[in-house]
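INFO batch 0412 | record 1 of 1 | parsing
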Amino acid sequence: DALVVASQLVTLVLEEDGTVVDTEEFFQTLGDNTHLMVLEQGQKWTPVSVLSGRQLGRLLTWVSAVPTWS
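INFO prediction complete | emitting tokens
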């Protein structure tokens, strides 16, 4: 299955610390259930603890809209 995120370049980062996942080799070393974030051009990783209420609300709305596969 595939998820189309955008028609532009995106950056894949670890949710916990913003480390960029930029090689297949690094991706293969990640453990099961590793949380990832997709950043579109111009976006920057920010720890959840510094998100404003409005940003957190948008994040939760986006997360709830992401399809899941079983």
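INFO post-check: The mean pLDDT is 74.
INFO record closed
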